[in-house]
Amino acid sequence: MKKLIATAAALAAVSAFSVVAFADAYVTISDETGKIVVAMMPIELTDNDGDGNITVNDVLISAHDEFYADGNGSAEESYATVDSDYGPMITKLWGVENGGAYGYYINNVAGMSLNDPIKDNDHLYAFVYTDAQNYSDKYTYFDLPTYTYDGIAPDTQPSIELHLSAAAFDENWSPVTVPVEGATITINDEKTDFVTDSTGTVTVDLPGGRDGVYIISAVSETETIVPPITLVKVVVDEEATDNDIEDNGAQEITDAPETGDVDAATDSSKGSPDTGIADVAAVAGIAVLAAGAFIVAKNRK
Ligand SMILES: [Ca+2]
Question: What is the distance, to the nearest Å, from the Cα of residue 114 to the centroid of all Cα atoms in its chain?
Answer without folding.
Answer: 20
